[in-house]
Amino acid sequence: MPGPLDGIRVLDFTRHLAGAGSTRILATLGAEILRIEWPHPPALDFLRLSGPHADGRPGMNRGGFFAQVNVGKKSVAIDMSTEAGKDIARELIPHCDVLAESFSPGVMKRWGLDYEAVRAIRPDIIYLSASGFGQTGPYAGYRSVGPTAQAYSGLTATSGLPDREPAGWGFSYMDHMGAVMNAAAILMGLERRRATGEGEFFDAGQSQHGCALLGPMLLDVSLNGAQVRPKGNRDLYGNFCPNSAYRCRGEDSWLAISVREPSEWAALCKVIDADDLAARPDLVTLAGRLAHEDEIDARVEAWTRSRDARETMVVLQEAGVPAGVAQTVEDKVHRDPQLAFRGLYTKLDDPVLGERRYEDIPVTMSGFDVGVSSPSPWLGADTRDVLRDLLGYPEERLEQLKADAIIDDAITLEEAEAV
Amino acid sequence: MSRTLEHLTVVELAGPRTEWCGKLFSQAGARVVLVEPPGGAETRRYGPWFQGRRDGESSLHFWHYNTDKESAVLDLTAGDGREAFLRLLGEADVLLDGSEAGGLEGLGLTREAIGEANDRLVHVALTPFGQEGPMASWLGSDLVHQALGGQMMMNGYDDMPESPPVNGQGNQAGHMAGSWAFIAALAALQAGKGSFIDLSVHDASAGMTENALPQFDYTGKVVTRRTGRHASVAPTPAWQHRAADGRYINAQLVNVSPRAWEGLVSWLDEHGMAEDLTDPKYFVPEIFREEADHISDVIGKFVATKTADEIFHGAQARALIFSAILNPEDLLDDPHLAARDFWIELDHGEPEGMLRYAGSAFVAQNSEVRPRRRAPRLDEHGDAVRGGGADG
Fold first, then answer.
1. What is the rounded CA–CA span in Å between residue A119 and residue A113?
2. Nearest to B139 by CA among B289, B236, B284, B16
3. Distance between CA atoms of residues B37 and B238, nearest Å
4. C-alpha dihedral over A274, A277, A283, A289, to 10 degrees?
């Protein structure tokens, strides 16, 4: 079965997770992704140098995180610092529906590949420029990685224990969500093209997307003049109570429990043998429980702390109480029957990396084949095929371009291991 | 200006799981009909509240997520409600269905019945754990999904013994899943045929923990939480420093170019605070790594003498990826967001008048993605919807 994006081809100048993660999403839905890259800056993706590495040995084709972010793509190695390289990229444009890039603002214009130049070649192109703060505005030149965007947007400040420094987030949430929003922008463009035949340009700022993800906090500050401060794991707006992570038996073992409905409260009281709490009419309502949140949390934790988190989760869920273990990655891989049932971790084999797990996508779609299906490309793995099949370059020309260091390729295992 | 998705019609069954996806459609101009049960959507009873007014029309949670939507009350437990619902689906491109697994089928609204109403419909079912499987009937919440998904265990304090893992605020599991629902629905539309999309919030959150899976898969090691910075296998230097005004700075040193390093050191040196960082030995990557705690200490002492804004803009001028850790209210008068028209005003009519909202973060050139209309009052468009006609 085809994927829903079969036939969509993307000229991909994105890097890192926030950029390259967006074209990963399109690849899992069937789009053909042509990564334009090179082993040296500016077209080098630093993720290719990042660990962890297969067998602990560095190498352009040995990075596990790069592999995770670039499944199902093709790699076309072109030296974009040369005029001949830029000409090849321009020749590819008519064959592509989408161009995506995540350089600092200005790079694509210097290469003569900004939206105006590209639309002159392909009027209905969907063009995404993804950067830290966007192409315009006083901070347009500012640099950003996930933690920068999280700090600027308020996501960092609102996560933490009360009266402590911010907890952080612990990972680059906005690299993931930047990637998701960038894929969404491209798809909005494709959908509009389907209806109108017209192209579109999106100027995406990872930091601005972070701000938009604050949710109802935005209106709380703009309309109520609120100062939002962290409340640990409790619900910021008291929509759930109890709502926290409770210590369980064993080292650093925690169970999250959320209660909103009176039926859930009654079920929780029954499971934790708290007949006295269940009998109190003032605790039936959310407002009543919020007035006694410290007392309730203490009672719940007094009960959980001598119990196994996973067994307790099952007991609570079977009684109708939302509960979940705070899982590590090891828990997710080895102890989560639902993720195993849904096949979230797909194994793929690659001659350099070996057999590895890849995070698959959270959807199945009837009538379509979607998901992670082939590993990440070696740098330049598809250079020859793409230039031959799409542009009709004869073998002699490919050889000459390679000899002139305009293009590169990696076809044999030896070549893949050499960089 | 035209709106990016103004040609689409979306039917959204009101619920906490569908509302972000519905907003992604509605702010792009799609006609989104919010089908509410008698009594209204549950999230009309979620805080925060508009200026303390706790009634069904004053939930800022509901206001935020339901801009531009139409509201129609349909009782799906009654025959005429189901008929109106199927009629509505007949003219829709997408159904956002946040009912529990099997919920619609229990009402006689089987996938077959929905397919008969519209065989080109893209039916997105968002459930906590997916349609089938050993945990399919389990209940979720944003906290529960960030716990099971792995986000929480990566976030917290390693300098505070016995402290719990901490979740991220702002309905982020809902945002992860809702955004994926939007992506999957738009992708299905490209193929021009109907599809049933089974989306699990658990999968969506479990699949977003950056380098944790590769670390585990390649090294067998599990990352653990670190105060104010990324979870990691081995301890790392602090990134987060307190500025003179009591606010915090995110000062991550990653892929620091020689130019950025020179800029940082000369900045510290101007204030007599560079200590030994002027030593060229720090250009050697191994020494830079070995001395990371020392470098962090020197930067932390410097940050403590400046305001967070001074560090933020001073560092960015020197090509460093630092940011002040802003509070949400700081965004209201942020000059960059103002220049990018992030904040907008929506008309609430009397008595509230024009109210300030966040727009969208999508900036398009040939069409527009931004809210234009306040969230609907309960059943505001019900007569038109139940009558079978389009409203506006």
1. 9
2. B16
3. 50
4. -60
Instruction: Please enumerate in sequence order all residues whose Cβ is within 8 A of that of A407, keeping only pairs 6 or more positions apart, or say none.
Output: A76, A77, A78, A79, A85, A88, A380, A383, A387, A398, A401
- Residue A333, token pair as written in the block: 């891989």
Which pLDDT belongs to residue A191?
A: 98
Q: How far apart, in whole angstroms, are the C-alpha atoms of residue B254 and residue A130?
A: 20
Q: Which helix (H) or strand (E) holds A339?
A: helix A337-342
**Which pair of structure tokens corresponds to residue A32?**
């053909």
- Which backbone phi and psi does B241 adopt, to 5 degrees? -130, 150
User: Which residues numbered 43-102 in A keep a CB inside 8 Å of some CB on B?
Assistant: 46, 50-54, 64-65, 67-68
Distance CA(A24)–CA(A376), nearest Å, equals 10
The reply to whether B30 touches chain A by the CB within 8 Å rule is no
Q: Which residues of B155-182 are buried (b: 16+ CB within 10 A; e: fewer)?
A: bbbbeeeebbbbbbbbbbbbbbbbbbbb
In one letter, which amino acid is A405? A
For residues A304 and A319, the answer to whether their CB atoms sit within 8 Å is no
pLDDT band at B158 (very low <50, low <70, confident <90, very high): very high
CB of B302 less than 8 A from some CB of A: no
Q: Which of B154, B331, B75, B225 is nearest to A155 (CA)?
A: B331
The domains of chain A are located at: 9-212+343-418, 243-337
d(CA A378, CA A375): 9
Extract the tokens encoding B197.
């999309």
Count CB-CB contacts under 10 A for residue B271. 10
Distances B176 to B145, B208, B224, B237 between C-alpha atoms, Å: 10, 8, 22, 29
Half-sphere exposure of B342 (CA within 13 A, CB side): 28
Asked if the model's pLDDT at residue A418 lies above 90, the reply is no
| Spatial distance between the Cα atoms of A127 and A109, rounded to a whole number of angstroms | 13
Place domain A243-337 in its CATH homologous superfamily.
formyl-coa transferase, domain 3 (3.30.1540.10)
CB contact under 8 A, A359 and B132: no
Q: Which CATH architecture has domain A9-212+343-418?
A: 3-Layer(aba) Sandwich (3.40)
Q: What is the dihedral of CA B39, B41, B43, B49, to 10 degrees?
A: -50
Confidence band, pLDDT 50/70/90 cuts, at residue B390: very low
Task: Give per-residue pLDDT as tens, A147-184.
Answer: 999 999 999 999 999 999 999 899 999 999 999 999 99
Chain A residues with CB under 8 Å of B110 CB are none
Task: Give yes or no for residue A376 having a pLDDT over 50.
Answer: yes
Q: Are A168 and B240 in contact (CB under 8 A)?
A: yes
Is ipTM strictly over 0.90?
yes
- Residue A48 neighbours by CB distance under 10 Å: 23
**pTM of the full structure:** 0.98
* Å between A25 CA and nearest CA of chain B: 9
Nearest residue on chain A to B199, judged by CA atoms?
A: A363
Write down all domains in chain B, each with its CATH number in brackets. 9-208+341-386 (3.40.50.10540), 230-242+248-324 (no CATH)
**Two structure tokens written together for A190:** 């494709």
Query: In this predicted model, what pLDDT tens digit does every residue of A257-307 receive, in sequence order?
Result: 999 999 999 999 999 999 999 999 999 999 999 999 999 999 999 999 999
**Within 13 Å of residue B114, how many CA atoms lie on the same side as its CB?**
25
Confirm if A23 and A100 have CB atoms less than 8 A apart.
yes
Best residue in B138, B309, B313 to probe A by mutation, most A CBs within 10 Å? Answer: B138
Cβ partners under 8 Å of residue B356, min gap 6: A222, A223, B332, B343, B344, B345
Q: What are phi and psi of B103, to 5 degrees?
A: -65, -45
